[in-house]
Amino acid sequence: MGWAAGQLVEGDIHALAIHANAPLVAATLRDGSVHVYDEEVVRFENLSLKKESVPTKVAWHPTKKYLAVAWNGGTVGLWCLDMESTLREGKIHQCRVTCLEWNPIGNRIISGDEDGGVVVWKVDVRGRLSTMSQYRLKGQITCCVFRVALFLSPEQQRPRDKDSPPFFLAGQSGSVYYADDMGHCTEATTTSMPVHSLFVPESQDALFVVSEDLVLSRFGLALDGKMTLDTSVKLSGGLKSLGINLLTAWIEPELLAITVNGSPVRMWDIANEETVILDRPELGASAYRSFKYNPRMQIMAVGSDNGSIILWQTSFVWKDGERSRTWEPLRKLDVGGGSILALSWGISDTYLAVKKAGGFQLISQQLLCCSTHGVQAVAVQIASDKVLVERQLGKQIIHIEAKGSIRALHVTSDLLAIYTGKAIELHRLEDSAQQSSQPASVPCHSAVFTANSKLVFIAEQNRIDMFSHQGLAKHTLLTSSEEGDVLRLVSVGSCLVLTTRNHSIAIFDVGGREPRLLVSRSLRARLANDTIHLFGINANATMVGFVASGNPSQLSIYSFELDNVFTHQFQGRTISSIAWDVEDTRLIVCELDTADAGGKAQIASLFVTVDSGIVQKDTETRPEKCDRLVGVAIPHFVFLKKQELQSEQASPVLLLPGREYVGVEGESQAVIKAITDFCFNLSAGNVDDAVKSVKLIRNESVWENMAKICVKLGRINLAKLCLGKLKNAKALRSMHDRRSVDGNGPIEQGVLAAIHLGLYDEAFAACSSTGRYDLMSELHQATGQWEKAIETAASKDRPALPTVFFNFAKHLKDVGDQSGAIAAYEKSNTARTHIPRMLLMQPDELRNYIDTSSDMSLKVWWAQNAESHSDYDTALKYYSMANDILSIVRVNCLSGKMEEAIRIADEHPDNAAVAYYIGRQLEDDGKIQRAITYFARAKSFASAIRLAKEHRIDKELMQLALQSTPESMNDVARYFEANGALPKAITLYSKVGNMVKAMDLCFRTKETALLETIATTLDPERDAKMIQKAANYLVEQGSTQNALRLLIMGQRYAEVLDICDAQHIPLSEELVDKMEMTGSGIPEQEAKALHMRIADCCFSQGSYQLACKQYTLAGDRLRAMGSLLKSGEKDKIIFFANVSGPKQPEIFIIAANFLQSMDWRADTSVMKAIIQFYTKAKAYMALARFYDSCALIEIDEFQNYEKAMGALKEAEKCLGKIPHPTPADRDNVETIKRKLHYIGLFLEAHQHAKAQQFDEAEHICMGILSEPEIDACVRVGDIYGLLIESSYTSGQFDKARQLLLSLSHRLTNVSVDYYVDRAIVQTLGGVPNSAAEADAANSVEEDY
Fold first, then answer.
1. CA–CA separation, 36 vs 28, rounded Å?
2. Phi and psi of 23, rounded to 5°?
3. Three-class SS of residue 823?
4. Whether residue 635 has a cis bond before it, omega within 30° of 0
5. How, if at all, do strands 564-569 and 587-594 pair?
6. CA distance readout (Å), 225 to 165, 220, 951, 1143, 1321
7. Which of 184, 47, 24, 211 is nearest to 120 (CA)?
8. 158 confidence band (pLDDT: 50, 70, 90)
């Protein structure tokens, strides 16, 4: 891929515009002319405009061949080049137009002038121009951008042709306006300085504004265009804007390119606040005048004032887990002619239009044409119209200049054919560097051509014309319409191979007088709708290789013999080119590219045969200095050099041997063929044939190359054979020593073979691919790459890192680097052993190292060395440095400083070893008491006890024994027993678990307190007999409570109850709680019996609540409730009933009956509990009786017949719930209903009386009184009271007196004052004497 500058078009260019897609370039001149050129900068003579006014602005339509032109006088025109070349104009502006922009879909033009006038022009499908809206703004308009993100957002409907996105305008006034094509325009924001550029990214709905004082502002946008300032940054960084020659360009939303007054272009990463300067000293640019970014190709073109253009390529790389952008110079182009004034990209982003002071040029990107004829001739395009031909392996270099731009070329051993777009030039290759003869020319318009040693073949559509090298027509071939047009021509020897549009392949024999068809096949069924991207044929025209566009990673080989296609897939890579060897019909080479930006291209060699199919030989990385593969002529690969390495004088190609041919490329063809056959057979797995193919070779270089091939392919046995031919005994011996049975032997042998053959990269790659990083580290060490060995071990084989450092230390020791060896030994964790050994003959250096070392073991070693030589002062010094207290004390004792040793031991009381050593020394000195103290401090209690017993120091013996081992305690216990100190013996026996002995001594000595203590430590299951024996003893001794505790601990609950009954000991709650039976292993029935016994005992003692708990545990809830009833605890009774009642409903009834005996009228909670309990027990009759009693109480005590009636209704409901009523139940129901009836009548009479309907009330009351036994329903006194009060109220006093007299006679035992207000009675004259006396006799004096 290269860049070529076209011909300079001279003229006084004012404005320049290149079309985005069509091959059109528009240039305006200061004489008022507008010219249009094609991509070859050939002017279209029939397309020309000229006016007296100078064109100031030109802009191409985004897709169509429409050119918008603005003139200095304010006229705006639309030149439609694809519609009869018509020009349509509009004159709205009255001054120079300074801004001219198309909208993204090309149906609007926005123009702005220097006075602030803005016009929105509509462009219809026929290219007609009309005005839609006009705005008058402040200052010159210089910027216009469209709000594309809103227009193309998923929330919006798909844009129609008549729609246009809104846009922003800005200029010299500093104001930014938001407008559309419907007449709406508002000032959105203002800046303090003129606006230099605006930017609206497609991916974000935001506006970026750069002012001329280098202030960058980012605004968020609302749907209505209102702007909110998000950030504002001062772009200083050493750039000082003078308000002139400021250039900016947006690369992406967060990346801005800027230059001021010719300074280097600076890329501002706004998000990360980083800058990158696009400048290199070697580029030699003095000042930069223009730049333009190509987003599709990611190339920044920068123009300088010395006529050079620098192309910068940007890419992304990953570093430390972060993605960062890099800029690297791609190419420097010198176009000459002074400063580069403006740059613009177009024509599918492959052309760069360059405006200069004296004219303009087009720089095009094109794939430089190249053709090879084996190694006999290689032709490479070096400029747009120049070709360099290299013949005979560089012995002759020929420069040929074509008469036009080169589109394609083909070279043979003596002919160069060049296609210029209009003709094919035929250049005879002569022996001199400069060609003297004029080339022949064959006019044509097809780039499908080829040539052989005699003829030139040119295909146009379905016609193939044959010409001589002098351009004379010879023959013509035609393909059928079913085959389609010819797409490719390839000449191989005397054969011509062609492919057609319909995927047909045909081979013609053109070596005779007339062309003859040899074979014709169709690949349509195999390719379907796909197309052939790459194509090639082998040397004898028996196989063709091709790559389909739909699968660029797959190589396909078609065999004419088998009429079959072989395929080979390259995972993760795409095939960029293919080439067959010019002689070997089996070998095809593919150039592979990767999608990874950091990946390297590879060269893959493959063998193809009818029998074996496709067999991959090897893959190697393409050399760094090579651009691409252009041919194969074994033993050489033909590469094209990178463009920056090419020069017009040197050869542009490189002939590099394949890896297996290095060093033998000068051998005979027989040797080369033998090596190739060896590679083929080895790749195909034919080991015997591989050996046969090279058995007659005597050249050691060949055998060495073949050994390398075997190692690369993993054929270790063959590699040994080759090494044997080379007589490399050392390599064979090392490989033999590496044999193993764990499966790693072949890997290690392959690595060793690679090392001996100098294939270090392959050895490292083999170690890495197989995960044998231990071998890789060994290889690094063996080759002296110690840093890499350490790095490999540190990252991949961490356990081996100390060994690597150890070997590195030995290496440094051998080379005399003692300081480095010391550091390596320290990192290998072997310093304490090997550094003293290394410095043993240098005592001063050794002592200095020990003094500075932090390894305390070395200081101890040096002190021990001094101690062995009786150098106690030195020993004390280094023991002190190592803080080895025991050694310090030992040396002090050895030197006779006993008190100093004791002082040091006292300062370290936690150091047991020191204390023990001092104890031994004091024992030797006869200081027994102090020795015992230090033995105890050292926790050597056996030694302390030994001394105390020997010297009968009993006062400390007990304390020492308690801290010692069980054996020592048992021994001291026997000592105390023998010496009569039985309490101490008992304590020690119990400590060591000898309970039998301890309790026997307690019984003998009557140590009751000790017995109790010991008994509490016994196991109830294992020591049950001992617990019983101890309890009996305690009872005998009168310690009943302690005996009870022991029995409870032993779960002897029956014995506990027996003792309590016999000695009338009350059962406390604490004692009962200790008799836990749940989880104790006592059978359930026995446990219930015990609970019953405990409950009976508690009940008899008056502990009713405790009895209730035990009855409950025994399962007798009725007796539990009876116990609670005896306690009279209302709340606990209610609680227990709620808990136990659901299981035994009788408990509800018992609790409710009991609660009725309480003052339930004063406590509503009791009344609710009664009703709830009867209801839960379904005791509806009892509940009805309770409601009946409630009604009687309401009548007798409160004369409240309303509440009484409510209670009777509830009683009626309860009776109705009885499932199987008896006759008595039915009678009760009738009784309740009778009461309800008469109480209802009585309440009705009351209502009549209140309403002063006295007759009705009297009638009802008299009717009630006439009923028999009415007093059971309504009290007679209450009826008479109502009649008397009614008569009194109505003024019938005589009648009232008569009723009062009747009341007194009917109720002789009750005072009438109970039923009739005393005031009424007195008003009526009182009760007659006989009745009054009766009242007086039965009344109670109320006034004291």
1. 9
2. -75, 70
3. helix
4. yes
5. unpaired
6. 12, 9, 108, 79, 99
7. 184
8. very low
Residue 1202 — φ and ψ, nearest 5°?
A: -65, -50
Residue 10 and residue 29: Cα distance in Å, rounded? 10
Closest of 784, 794, 707, 795 to residue 749, by C-alpha: 707
Question: 143 phi and psi, to 5 degrees?
Answer: -130, 140
**Measured distance CA(972)–CA(978) in Å, rounded:** 10
- Residue in this structure with the two tokens 């009638």, named with its chain if needed: 1259
Q: In this model, does residue 1022 exceed pLDDT 60? A: no
Beta strand 55-60 with 43-50: parallel, antiparallel or unpaired?
Answer: unpaired
CA of residue 762 relative to chain centroid, distance: 36
Beta bridge partners of 418: 409, 425
Q: What 3-state DSSP class applies to 997?
A: helix
Please give the DSSP secondary-structure letter assigned to residue 1267: S
* Cβ-based neighbours of 619, under 8 Å, separated by 6 or more: 592, 602, 603, 604, 605
Q: Which two tokens stand for residue 1185?
A: 């009786």
Residue with tokens 């034919």: 686
Stretch (H or E) spanning 293: strand 288-294
Mean pLDDT of 622-635: 87
- pLDDT, one tens digit per residue, over 1246-1301 is 888 888 888 888 888 888 888 888 877 888 888 888 888 888 888 888 888 888 88
At residue 741, the pLDDT reads 40
The kind and range of the H/E element at 630 are strand 626-633
Question: Distance between CA 1119 and CA 1131 in Å, rounded?
Answer: 18
* Owner of token pair 């010299």: 172
CB distance 223 to 150 below 8 Å: yes
Query: Alpha-carbon Rg of the chain, whole angstroms?
Result: 60
Give the distance between the most distant pair of CA atoms in the chain.
178
Beta carbons within 8 Å of 1012's beta carbon, 6+ residues apart: 1030, 1034, 1039, 1042, 1046
Residue in this structure with the two tokens 């750069």, named with its chain if needed: 210
Query: Which long-range contacts link 29-32 to residues 24+ away (Cβ below 8 Å)?
Result: 30/54, 32/71
For residues 219 and 228, what is the distance between their CA atoms, to the nearest angstrom? Answer: 5
Are the C-beta atoms of residues 466 and 495 closer than 8 Å to each other? no
Reduced to 3 states (helix: H, G, I; strand: E, B; else coil), residue 446 is coil
3-state secondary structure 130-170: EEEEEEECCCCEEEEEECHHHHCCCCCCCCCCCCCCCEEEE
For CA atoms 1300, 1305, 1307, 1312, the dihedral sign is positive
In angstroms, rounded to a whole number, what is the distance separating the alpha carbons of residues 555 and 571? 11
Instruction: Give CA–CA dist 201/98, Å, rounded.
Output: 23
Residue 253, classed as helix, strand or coil, is: coil
Q: Are 253 and 206 in contact (CB under 8 A)?
A: yes
What pLDDT does 701 receive?
62
Question: Listing from the earlier edge strand, what are the strands of the sheet with 415-419?
Answer: 408-411, 415-419, 423-428, 440-443
Question: What's the CA dihedral at 510, 516, 518, 523 to 10 degrees?
Answer: 90
- Alpha-carbon distance 662 to 709, whole Å? 11
- Report the candidate in 649, 581, 577 with the shortest Cα–Cα distance to residue 390: 649
Residue 390 CA to residue 412 CA, distance in Å, equals: 11
Q: Give the residue with greater pLDDT, 711 vs 35.
A: 35
Residues present in the chain in total? 1344
Q: What is the DSSP string of 469-506?
A: TTS-EEEEEE--TTT-SEEEEEEETTEEEEEETTSEEE
Which tokens sit at 414? 């003596």
* pLDDT, tens digit (0-9, with 9 covering 90-100), for 669-691: 777 888 788 788 877 878 677 76
Helices within 306-357 (DSSP H only):
none
- SS3 of 1178, please? coil
Say which residue the tokens 């020997």 belong to: 950
Q: What is the pTM of this model?
A: 0.47
